[in-house]
Amino acid sequence: MQNKKSAKPFQKGKNFKKYQNKSQSAAKPKDDEEIERIQAQIDSIDPSKVKHFSDFPLSWKTQKGIRESNYKVPTEIQRQSIGYALQGRDILGAAQTGSGKTLAFLIPVIENLFMKKWTRLDGIGAIIISPTRELAYQIFETLKKIGAHHDFSAGLIIGGKNLKFEKKRMDQCNIIICTPGRLLQHMDENPLFDASTMQVLVLDEADRCLDMGFEQTMNGIIENLPPERQTLLFSATQTKSVKDLARLSLDNAVYVAPTEQQTVTPDNLKQSYVVVNLEDKITMLWSFIKSHLKQKCIVFLSSCKQVKYIYEMFCKLRPGTSLLALYGTLHQDRRVAIYQEFCRKSNVVLFATDIASRGLDFPTVNWVIQLDCPEDVTQYIHRAGRTARHKARGESLLVLLPSEEEGMVAELKDSKINIDQIHIDPRKLFSPKGKMEGFLAQNKELKETAQRAFVSYIKSVFLMKNKKIFNVSKLNTDDYAKSLGLVVVPRVRFLERFKKRQAAAQKTNKDDGSSEESSSDEDEDDHEGTSKVSKKDDDVNFNLPHSDDSDNSEAEEELFKIKRRDHEIEVDGDSKIDDAAAKAELTAARKAKVLTKAAQAKRVLKKRIQANTKVEFNEDGTEVLDTRKQLQSDLARDYINQDEGGIDIETAKKVLREEDKFDKQRFKEIVKAKHKVQKKKSKSKKTDDVDEDDEADDFGSDADADDQQSIDLSWLPDPKKVYNVVNSDSDSSDDNEDQNADVSESESLVHRPPKRLYEKKKKSRNSTESDNIASASDDNDDDGEEEQPRKKKAKQIADKLSLNEAEIIAMQLLGK
Ligand code: ADP
Ligand code: MG
Asked: Looking at residue 72, what is its pLDDT?
């Protein structure tokens, strides 16, 4: 799927044949002979005699592709339709899900082009349309396998990204597999796209392609296709609408429906339903998953938001199996990755919207659970058909609300669907509600997802066309919100308004004359009166999707975008609306203006809000009114005054360099000025310090001032520790040990003078110390007996000294 946008040959590797033009291929007698041989056999194909694919008159390249893909015996739909299709007939093929319809149209497509000697130069030969991207991808993969030995090129045109890339390659494609929207986009926008050469048109899941959801798009596509063509329509629930067939000019088509007398669902599919209250659905699902951990399951829900929430919440709850989610609002790459992962894995649960309900051939799915009731039997058949494909077995479980049971079961039985009710053992139910509440309390984002899921479910029920089955007023919304883990029930404004209008309408009916009263008595479901009132209200309320209501505004806005099919609103007069009130809401929605970017911009202009205005301030904090005045260089001024759009990178670079010079200069000046100020400050500080010292001296010590002014030297290492000086006064050996230890520790941290120098200093210090001690004792110990001879000696010396010398010595002693 990575190469989905490319036009590429089926084959890669050794079987890949180089491009051949028409003349070359025409010159190949082998192909010509083969074509002649096949042509001779085609008219006499008898489906009843076909036992193997080799019994069909097919080219050896196709036969080889089929063999290599391990297909031997054709399925019933293949056996019955391939012959007609090879003869060039239009086909309306209806066969159960998983019965092999893909090959039933792919083989004729390839053979048809082969027989016409189609080459790459001949352009588009066939267009295959699928309603979903995943299904288109799947068809493309099958085509690559069975067409591996042909030299056609195929392109997967499914949108998601890079239209440009597709555009260039469209004209090189012989077979295009596409979704309707993207095909029409190419038809409208791509000058290289030319469908006039197309020979075969295929609609897989034809009824879906032709239903209301794609109606306009398909009409646009059909207009662009040549009327002379072969058309093949396939689906498990085939369209028989004359209108549809007329649109496609199918007046002589063969209707091939091998299963018409039998059941519409596969025989290997075991189908059951269970009736559960809305508020118990999550508990039921959680318990089901916990008890089917080794199975591959798909759980269908009615909206993207529900899928997102249940998936995210269940991931947090960790059931013990892989979980995946597939829905339309995911990025295309994620969709592809999830699709592939689900195909690959065996113990896994996929939560999905109806994008996964049609055509997808996931291998070995054990269970399909329809947690939200399908909108009709057709949708039920396609969802259930994701299991029990081809000859595999599978089980389908439909979950119904008590209010849905009667209507839905009756419709299923009418369509010959064998479905039995089963009951759940309440002892086996485990409610994750408490844990869910806990997660929501912790996670605001998840709580918002839960709120959206809640609203979107109610919306989906509200929009269902079959009001006999779907009744929004019977939903126990409060308990449902709680079952999702929401403590506070979110407001559903559209429902409140709808109910209000319903009540008002009933009141008006009663107040009005008896004739109307009697008519409403006759039929309780008649909302004629309601619709009249609601229409008036609509003009006020529903045309204003951007009202002041901020919560749920997104959800409400989306309510008015009709995404789903079959809401038979409109159009040609032959469609009816079941619920007149819903019609009023929806018609109002169509009237509601789409808020485009341009419209938004206009609004802003009207309000005179200046978007993206920038206010600049200079360093002093004052607003710079014209930034241009700040520009210094002439070059910059010239550049800014040029009114040319866009940016000339080279000139802009030059301007910046030029401005940079001025900026540097200015910066230098600012730094200089700052230095000056700092110098001034430090000068004045010095004088202040002196004053403070004086003050301290004068008025006594001020502890705080001292702390502030004195230099903190506490960070310096203790010199005693550094120099390993043992304090002679200290008599504790323990202390010494500690000190030594500290020293050794601090060794690495402090610089130490060389040992020799240190010893020298120590010596000299000791000597001076002893000198001082001697002289001091001279001064102090006057009365000691030992002092007498010393005093005598001093006197003798003093006597010998001159007056001057004696004075100097006296001064020195005083100084000390
Ligand atoms: P449908 O389109 O009818 O739902 P598919 O074409 O998707 O069914 O085929 C369903 C499965 O059956 C696929 O896995 C496909 O490979 C397989 N299949 C189709 N034809 C044959 C065949 N003749 N023999 C064996 N398997 C087949
Ligand atoms: Mg199919």
From this structure: 96
Q: Residue 465 carries which side chain, given as an amino acid letter?
A: K
Which of 123, 125, 172 is closest to 5 using CA atoms?
Answer: 172
- Residue 172 tokens read as 């090189």
Residue ranges around ligand 1 (CB below 6 Å): 71, 73-75, 78, 95, 97-103, 359, 361, 389-390
Whether 454 and 419 have beta carbons less than 8 Å apart is answered as no
**pTM of the complete model:** 0.65
Amino acid at 262: Q
Helix (H, G, I), strand (E, B) or coil at 116: coil
Specify the pLDDT at position 601: 75
Residue nearest to atom 18 of ligand 1 (CA): 100
What domains does the chain contain, in order, with CATH numbers? 17-256 (3.40.50.300), 269-431 (3.40.50.300), 494-511+530-597 (no CATH), 614-697 (no CATH), 719-771+786-815 (no CATH)
How far is it, in rounded angstroms, from Cα 530 to Cα 507? Answer: 10
Q: Which atom of ligand 1 is nearest to the CA of 138?
A: 7
Structure tokens at 268: 């290997």
Which tokens sit at 139?
């068809």
How far is residue 695's CA from residue 690's CA, in Å, rounded to a whole number?
9
Residue nearest to atom 27 of ligand 1 (CA): 100
User: Residue whose CA is closest, atom 5 of ligand 1?
Assistant: 100
Long-range contacts (CB closer than 8 Å, 24 or more residues apart) made by 625-633: 631/659, 632/659, 632/662, 633/658, 633/659, 633/661, 633/662
Q: Classify residue 717 by its DSSP letter.
A: P
CA dihedral 475, 481, 484, 490 (to 10 degrees): 130
Both structure tokens of 724? 């390993």
Residue-wise pLDDT for 598-647, tens only, equals 777 777 677 666 556 566 666 666 666 655 556 677 777 777 666 555 66
Q: At what angle do helices 60-68 and 101-115 cross, to 10 degrees?
A: 150
pLDDT tens-digit series, residues 566-576? 433 333 333 33
Q: How do residues 129-165 score in pLDDT, each as one tens digit?
A: 999 999 999 999 999 999 999 999 999 999 876 777 7
CB within 8 Å of 348: residues ≥ 6 apart: 296, 297, 321, 322, 323, 324, 341, 342
- Residues 591 and 543 sit within 8 Å (Cβ to Cβ): yes
